[in-house]
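Q: I'm a student working through a structural biology exercise. My instructor gave each of us a protein and asked us to get a predicted structure, then write a short paragraph describing it. Mine is Long-chain-fatty-acid--CoA ligase. I'm not confident about reading structure output yet, so if you can add a plain explanation after the tokens, that would really help. Here is the sequence I was given:
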Amino acid sequence: DLFGSVEPLLPSLREDGVAVWVLGAGPYPPGVVALQELLDAASEELEPEDVWEPEDMNDTCLYIFTSGTTGLPKAARVSHLKSVMCLSFYELVGASSRDVVYLALPLYHMAGSLLGIVGCLGIGERGRGPGGVPGIFWRLILPSHPAGATCVLKEKFSASQFWDDCRAEGVTVFQYIGELCRYLVNQPQRPGERQHGLRLAVGSGLRPDVWRSFQQRFGPVRIVETYGMSEGNVTLFNYTG
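A: Happy to help. First, here is the predicted structure for Long-chain-fatty-acid--CoA ligase. I'll explain a few features afterward.
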């Protein structure tokens, strides 16, 4: 869908040695790699580890678009190590493999792709250890195997359909950016908006007034506010609320 925006730039990208990969039906101009054809032809057998294992976990794994907390919008470098650490995101906030996670964030952003999708893949069978200790720490003592959680992936967020989606899909965890909760609070009240299975909301940028209004209106949903940056190296978790 986005190839039309990139196509006029192909000559300058080729001059700079930038490869263009496209997932979807072609045909495409020379020099553009059609991934679907390669995926269809690829073997399901894993290559030996020395082919795909990174030589250094601090090497670049991928680039994530960031809106520019530390400057202008840009591509932020994400290492293999940071990507692997994102596997533990949902365990850190108390989710388990029994949860159903609602995700409507853009996948070109770290919150949607690495914390959201990769976080769902990395959820262990227990989630939290005894006494509420996050699973990532408990696993140092008693290792668990990632079991994964169900992810309900929405193409875009709809405040008017959100609670209907939660009921229809059995959603228990909602990953937000602060404005999404404000959109929900600003919706007209309707019957049944407290009849849902949502137990946990986790994300960034939730204002205190919206936080209070959200819980008063929609029930005792536990909220864990986090803060981090794609190009930063520190992440904060508000476990106490």
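A: Here are two points you could use in your paragraph. The chain has two domains: 2-50, 86-237. The first strand starts at residue 20 and ends at 22. It's a good idea to check both against the output above yourself.
Q: Great, thank you!
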